[in-house]
Design a protein that fits this description.
This protein is mostly beta strands. The protein has helices at residues 35-44, 124-127; strands spanning 15-21, 27-33, 48-51, 56-59, 68-75, 82-88, 107-110, 113-116. The protein has one domain: Ubiquitin-like (UB roll) (Roll). It has a four-stranded mixed sheet, covered by helices on one side. The protein is globular and about 45 Å long.
């Protein structure tokens, strides 16, 4: 039995993947992986996800340059969530979110409203190619 067989894939063959910054412990983002993405992540030492909207593999940083260097892959107790411990690399180190922020979890609930509490470190228009 392969290590991949220990993962409980959903009906679409996907598993949620949490990217956690190794040094700080910050949760950077949550994405999805299929068997191929998880296999490539392990083989390459860099995060590869599966884009549900585009229906294809997505090498983190392929457009932005914000690559996630892999340190460890963990599986939760139920086998249905993967945790990637990573270092966020790139032209603008520390940016994991497509909004130009450190983490995708930049909003906090304050008095019945979501408030952005983390700054934009780099304008997304300066990160991504125009028209993509």
């Amino acid at each position: 039995m392969s290590w991949l067989d220990k993962v409980k894939w959903d009906a679409q063959g996907l598993v949620p993947a949490i990217a956690q910054e190794q040094g700080s412990g910050d949760i950077l983002m949550v994405a999805w992986m299929n068997r191929e993405a998880l296999t490539l992540t392990n083989a390459l030492g860099r995060a590869v996800y599966y884009s549900r909207s585009r229906q294809k593999l997505w090498h983190k940083g392929e457009e932005s340059g914000h690559v996630q260097q892999l340190h460890a892959i963990r599986l939760d107790c139920d086998g249905d969530v993967v945790l990637l411990q990573v270092t966020q690399l790139g032209h603008h180190p520390g940016i994991a979110c497509h909004t130009g922020r450190h983490s995708c979890f930049f909003r906090e609930l304050k008095t019945d409203a979501w408030v952005a509490i983390d700054p934009v470190l780099k304008d997304p228009g300066d990160i991504y190619k125009q028209g993509e």
